[in-house]
Amino acid sequence: MRSGRRPSELGDLADLLAGPVLPAARGLLGCRLTAGGVTVRVTEVEAYAGTAGDPASHAHRGRTPRNAVMFGPSGHAYVYFTYGMHWCMNVVTGPDGEASAVLLRAGEVVDGLAEARLRRPAVRRDTDLARGPARLCAALGIDRTSYGRYLLDDGPVRLRPAGAPVPEDAVAAGPRVGVTGAHDVPWRFWIAGDPTVSAYRRHVPRARR
DNA sequence: GGGTAGATTGGG
DNA sequence: CCAATCTACCCT
């Protein structure tokens, strides 16, 4: 896409995702993700570089069956299972062969509210439905079946450009949540003041038993 | 093959 | 603060 512009067309979004991960992460803010009858507006993301110099990336130690899709072309979903119970979703970015990706950390449910509530019955406030990477996937019904899916066509999981562009000065940046290292790298981006942005939690290694 | 830490969440 | 719950990945 033309540099400095947020994606307004599907082609712009495809070009953005094919480029460097940091602009891609910022540009994903405001985009719509639809799955399972629910649509969210993305409000918080984190960038992860490929094997080069990002110890927090799942691709840091090279290609494995789990992270294989990260090494492929951009625009596909990298979905992983963690803590024995949660699914999280990334959008693969960068050129084919480079394993960068953007974690979708939170969103605002803008359509399919009833469906989202069915999947997250304990939630009280609508702003909590997709407030967190695993909560977002739960609200949308995203699991292993979404692994590798291309997001820019008319498949079951669809990513679309922002309805209203997010102004540059409305984007805040800070350290990534839950990562053990690289706390000096401000690769988490969110829409400042948005109530659906997840709370920051410092990573605490679990005590050994 | 075994041991361990994990891009989290919900409850106390 | 801590348990839940299980998998991918590295190696005591």
TrEMBL record:
The name this protein goes by in its record: Putative 3-methyladenine DNA glycosylase
InterPro entries: Formyl_transferase-like_C_sf, MPG, MPG_sf
GO molecular function annotation: alkylbase DNA N-glycosylase activity; DNA binding
Group of enzyme by EC: hydrolase
NCBIfam families (UniProt xref): 3mg, PRK00802.1-3
Gene3D superfamilies linked to this entry: Methylpurine-DNA glycosylase (MPG)
Similarity comment text for this entry: Belongs to the DNA glycosylase MPG family.
One example of a Gene Ontology biological process annotation: base-excision repair
Keywords: DNA damage, DNA repair, Hydrolase
EC number: 3.2.2.-
